[in-house]
Amino acid sequence: MALILNEEQLMLKEAASSFLNDKAPVSQLRELRDSDDERGYKEGVWKDMTEMGWAGIAIPEEYGGVGYGYSGLGIVLEEVGRNLSASPLNATVLVAATVVLRAGNSQQKQAILPGIAAGTLNMSLAIEENGHHKVNNFTTTAKAAGSKYVLNGAKHFVADVASADQIIVAAQADNDIGFFVVDVTASGVSTETVTMIDSRNSGRVTLNNVEVSADSRLGDGGCSSVALQESVDIANIGISAELLGLSLTAFEMTVAYLKEREQFGVVIGTFQGLQHRAAHLFCELELAKSMVISALQSIDSNKPGLDLMASATKAKVCEVAQLATNEAIQMHGGIGMTDEYDMGFYIKRARALEHTYGDRNYHLDRFATLSNY
Q1: What is the pLDDT of residues 111-158, one digit of tens each?
Q2: Buried b / exposed e across 101-138, counting CB within 10 Å, b at 16+?
Q3: How much is the pTM?
Q4: How is residue 264 annotated by DSSP?
Q5: What is the tens place of the pLDDT at every residue in 197-233?
Q6: How far apart are CA 94 and CA 106, in angstroms?
């Protein structure tokens, strides 16, 4: 497949760019941070996003979605990264809806996905249990008790937990991994919201003898480890798209500054050393762009080797995002370190996304292991 956007995708990109520039720019994130907004995003903006079809963009039409695929969702996420727009798009659409699609049976998909697509249901995946990402050996347990399961344990870094209606809990069940849909208002569920370094809301979920029906387990009772890994791989590719967007904007802001900032009576963009660094970063961004497009296409085409593609893409884009934001701070000099300048928001968001579902080192090691190195 061609590693360029077609006419329809370009139209989606332009529409997303125009909307987010107008309705959810970086200044809005600053406002949310300074007001200590508990929800972490503007409800009106999220409503507008759902009316534009973004909440159902990767959900098949048979479940109330648009059926545009992950290539379409990736385009939107890239523009989200460019503007640092806050919404439940990642937690609910990229991650939770993907888990339901990969692990749920037809009845569960029909019961859950239309609500996500319509923007009336917010969900989040509860998987992490400590500071290191892993997708197995959970300490959270789900024990069968007649027609019910009893859940116990704690999960960290549950995205947008403050606005979630339901959470999907990954737990050890019958010596297998199971997904359980749990209402946040259920007895025994307690949540604690934490504001992360990137000014987004995350949180801790504690489960104390939480009883859920057997129907709340996604799928037909089998092991969900394959669905879990596939879902996380897709999530990492979507995260890579957002990282790409913020990296591109950091680069563009830096080049613009190099063209206007004067030192010793000349524009600093004329300094050969800075030109070389900018040229190197441009080449790295072009490579990252191609990898993200290819990875998104591989999801939609069900191409084999999703695990390799996901880890290769996340590892490379993490490297490029770190380079882009570090270079931006350095080339902006003193102004880049100030809170009044937007660059600080980009580097903080980049670092938070890099560590979501495994950082660069995690994915380099996983890629090597999968390749039998």
Answers
A1: 999 999 999 999 999 999 987 888 877 999 999 988 899 999 999 999
A2: bbbbeeebbebbbbbbbebebbbbbbbbbeeebebeeb
A3: 0.96
A4: T
A5: 999 999 999 999 999 999 999 997 666 788 999 999 9
A6: 19
Tokens representing 29 are 């994130």
Burial class (CB within 10 angstroms; exposed 0-12, middle 13-18, buried 19+) of 72: buried
Distance CA 80, CA 58 (A): 16
Please tell me the distance from the alpha carbon of residue 320 to that of residue 314, in angstroms, as a whole number: 10
Q: Distance between CA 277 and CA 332 in Å, rounded?
A: 13
Q: Are 241 and 313 in contact (CB under 8 A)?
A: no
Kindly state the DSSP code that residue 67 receives in the 8-state scheme.
-
DSSP alpha helices (H): ranges in the chain?
Answer: 7-23, 26-34, 43-51, 69-83, 97-103, 106-118, 225-258, 272-300, 306-332, 343-354, 360-370
For the residues of 153-191, what is the DSSP string, one character each?
EEE---TTGGG-SEEEEEEEETTEEEEEEEETTSTTEEE
Phi and psi angles of residue 279, each rounded to the nearest 5 degrees, phi first: -65, -40
